[in-house]
Amino acid sequence: MKISCNIIRDMLPLYAENMASQDTREIVEEHIASCENCKKQLEEMRTPEELPIDNDITLLKNIQNTLRREKLQTIILSVMVTLVLAVITMAYLTAPAYISYNENAISIIERDDGTVLLNFSEEVSGFDVNQSPAADNSGYVYDITTWETIWDQKISKNNLENTVLNPNGETVDSIYYYNTDGSENILMYGDPITDGSVVTLPRLVLNYYVMFAIGFLLICGIGLAIFRKNEKIRNGLEKIILLPISYLFAHLLIMGLRSTSYLAGRDFYAILLVAISLYCALIAGRNILKKLSNKKPKSTL
Ligand SMILES: [Zn+2]
């Protein structure tokens, strides 16, 4: 029996959708091998219909872009939150636990060439030295303290190198060990600088930064209250006010309620790192919140 093109065309839809039986497939394939018209028909069935060009497409594209931006912001937010947690963890692991004075923690070796060597025991993770000229200008007075960290105890056994106290040959008048509990400094080497007691005090600089941040926060707060009706200024102020908020939060996370520090430099950098990542997280979070609250009224338009 001769199979006409019409019969083949009835079969083509099934064939194109891969729903035809093996027998039908064979018949169709045999036919289109020798019939250009039916082959063409099949190819047309297989090319997908082009989407009608419509204004809806730009709308779809906009939605797609918005979704992409939101996704990006969510990613930034999670990265920043992770960063904050990582910095806090690192700050905690490397937070100095001060070692109160004991003769084993640190020993002082005087060498023939006039240099003075500090030799630390294994428990010491780090040390701090303050150098100040002696009252009679005969040389220098050194205040030293040492500490250990959880990081060094539990994770890496980093042995502290011996350190030359006066690499440029300064005269070492006396060396004191200071404790961070407010108790008297202990003379380790040389002559006492006064007849009375010497106490090294923690630095107050972080205290000033906190006060500055609080002042800045108040100014921004007042600005927000004044300009709450001006959307442009309010938007800008909302972004700026997050700066002191981030700093104060970071301070709280790193220092707790303390604001004095014997290692103000280290603590300040840790606070700054947390504050920066916290700020980015807050900005990303704010944008996401803004978008969510904008979405509801928009969908009713
Ligand atoms: Zn045909």
From TrEMBL:
Q: Which Pfam families match?
A: zf-HC2 (PF13490)
Instruction: Show the InterPro entries listed in the entry.
Output: Znf_put
Keywords from UniProt, A to Z, are: Membrane, Transmembrane, Transmembrane helix
Signal peptide positions (record): none
Domain spans labelled Putative zinc-finger: 5-38
Which spans are transmembrane here? 75-95, 206-227, 239-257, 269-289
What is the protein's given name?
Answer: Zf-HC2 domain-containing protein
UniProt lineage: Bacteria, Bacillati, Bacillota, Bacilli, Bacillales
